């Protein structure tokens, strides 16, 4: 039986799944790694740690799989926006700068001034944010000129792994959409954006479809990775686009992802962009379009409160929560600044409304509500585009919480379902590998994804939460001047 591997290169761990040609996941593996923060606001990692994690995960999948030689194809999902700089020999010149790095605030302000902001919106469909790749390039050019001068190749995180397996420099539109170097509407690099960055197109990877074949595993790569010779490597896509596949969403529907960060993703038939720059315009894995908004500290806000402040585990804290409270405690989850829809890197996390009787559990509940409010904020920014929606899909570690599921369902007012497979982006990457190798349309495989039971919204709970959301918005407006 043909076997397929899906790889998800995440921020803190690489996850891999092994599946067959019938949609069954046979084995999974997870290899964690640590990012470094040598200065406040910095987040980076040596790309070679990703390569070690990849080989470790593949060895774990191989153990106990007697039919390993029947692995026919592999594909990727990967964290977006990261900057990997290579020299002429293909060796990393410095640690990769990750999506959650905020050292480039000055570069973002420069890019969002006057005509440059308009140029980026018109050319790439997005404004500059600290997470995106272009301001990272400008930071390196200004602060590490010797590194910039030696740079021969610029890659995104997952594309570095594809290069190490095949020797080919390639990427695709869904991931490149988050670089501010790519014309999302036309599916090609933007000459004007490259001029802003001070780079040449030949420094960037070749653009393939998400289902595009990068290459096959040769003898040397087989020895390093454990993959059988001849195994096909397909490029895959950015984690949000590929995660949507794993949730059963391709051309329509609303995806709400509650992971370390939080994401709302809305497929669109035609290209559009938000002229206010509140939302992101990206490409889908099948070549269509996506409208997306991101809140930076979602489940990570609860982890911070539980582990960092209370020194307790997240499950321990959540199990002790009241379902609701009369306390008027509010929490703004802006621990890393915020992206959609306020795009304010200087926003800060805030508790408000505590009294001498407020408990740690009530504050934890406020954290969960604040994250739900931040996601609802993105939903509201999508406006009329959501009017025809009948259902949404919830994915991510935070979506396993019944309380968080109910909050989001009540706030947004749509029934919600989650895929039974919890692998998410790695499962989506498996689908890409299988679709590409078998020649089957992605839509055919996505339609067959099994889903759990529907969670229905409660109008009364939704009304109460939306009233509290209005106070949440007013709190941010009042604090913004500080």
**Unreliable spans:** none
| Structural class by helix and strand composition | alpha/beta
Question: Can you tell me the CATH superfamily of the largest domain?
Answer: ATPase, nucleotide binding domain
**Oligomer classification:** single chain
Domains (count):
2
| CATH architectural grouping of the largest domain | 2-Layer Sandwich
- What is the averaged pLDDT score? 94
Radius of gyration over all CA atoms, rounded: 22 Å
Examine the coordinates and then state which fold CATH places here, giving the name of the CATH topology of the largest domain.
Nucleotidyltransferase, domain 5
CATH class of the largest domain: Alpha Beta
Structure overview:
This protein is of the alpha/beta class and 482 residues long. The chain has two domains: 3-241, Nucleotidyltransferase, domain 5, CATH 3.30.420.40; 250-418 and 452-482, Nucleotidyltransferase, domain 5 (2-Layer Sandwich), CATH 3.30.420. 37% of the residues lie in helices and 20% in strands. It contains 17 helices and 23 strands. The strands form seven sheets. Strands 1, 2, 3, 5, 13, 14 and 15 form a seven-stranded mixed β-sheet that branches. α14 (402-412) packs across α17. 52% of the residues are buried. The model has no long low-confidence stretch (mean pLDDT 94).
């Amino acid at each position: 039986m043909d076997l397929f591997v899906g790889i998800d290169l995440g921020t803190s761990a690489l996850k891999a799944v092994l599946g067959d040609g019938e949609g069954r996941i046979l084995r999974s593996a997870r290899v964690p790694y640590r990012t470094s923060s040598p200065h406040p606001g910095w987040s980076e990692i040596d790309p070679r740690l990703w390569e070690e994690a990849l080989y470790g995960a593949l060895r774990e999948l191989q153990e106990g799989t007697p039919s390993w030689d029947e692995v026919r194809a592999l594909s990727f999902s990967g964290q977006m926006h990261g900057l990997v700089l290579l020299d002429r020999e293909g060796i990393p010149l410095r640690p990769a700068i990750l999506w959650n790095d905020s050292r480039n605030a000055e570069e973002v302000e420069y890019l969002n001034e006057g005509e440059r902001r308009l140029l980026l919106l018109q050319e790439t469909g997005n404004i500059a944010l600290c997470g995106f790749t272009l301001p990272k390039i400008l930071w390196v050019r200004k602060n590490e000129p010797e590194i910039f001068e030696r740079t021969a190749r610029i890659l995104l995180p997952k594309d570095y792994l594809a290069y190490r397996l095949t020797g080919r420099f390639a990427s695709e539109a869904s991931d490149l959409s988050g670089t501010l170097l790519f014309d999302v509407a036309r599916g090609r690099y933007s000459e004007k954006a490259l001029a802003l960055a001070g780079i040449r197109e030949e420094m960037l990877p070749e653009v393939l479809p998400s289902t595009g074949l990068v290459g096959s595993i040769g003898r040397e790569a087989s020895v390093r990775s454990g993959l059988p010779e001849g195994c096909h490597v397909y490029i895959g896509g950015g984690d949000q686009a590929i995660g949507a596949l794993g949730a059963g969403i391709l051309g329509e529907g609303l995806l709400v992802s509650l992971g370390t960060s939080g994401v709302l993703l809305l497929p669109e038939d035609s290209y559009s962009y938000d002229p206010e720059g509140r939302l992101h315009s990206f490409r889908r894995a099948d070549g269509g379009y996506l409208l997306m908004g991101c809140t930076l500290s979602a489940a990570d806000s609860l982890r911070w409160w539980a582990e960092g402040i209370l020194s307790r585990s997240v499950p321990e804290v959540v199990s002790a929560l009241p379902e609701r409270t009369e306390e008027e405690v509010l929490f703004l989850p802006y621990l890393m600044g915020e992206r959609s829809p306020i795009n304010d890197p200087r926003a800060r996390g805030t508790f408000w409304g505590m009294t001498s009787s407020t408990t740690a559990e009530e504050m934890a509940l406020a954290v969960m509500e604040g994250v739900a409010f931040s996601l609802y904020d993105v939903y509201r920014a999508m406006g009329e585009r959501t009017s025809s929606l009948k259902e949404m899909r919830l994915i991510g570690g935070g979506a396993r919480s019944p309380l968080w599921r109910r909050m989001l369902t009540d706030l947004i007012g749509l029934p919600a379902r989650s895929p039974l497979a919890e692998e998410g982006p790695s499962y989506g990457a498996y689908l890409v590998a299988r679709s590409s190798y078998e020649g089957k349309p992605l839509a055919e495989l996505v339609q067959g994804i099994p889903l759990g039971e529907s969670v229905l919204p409660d109008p009364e709970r939704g009304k109460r939460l939306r009233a509290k959301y209005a106070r949440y918005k007013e709190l941010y407006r009042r604090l913004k001047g500080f």
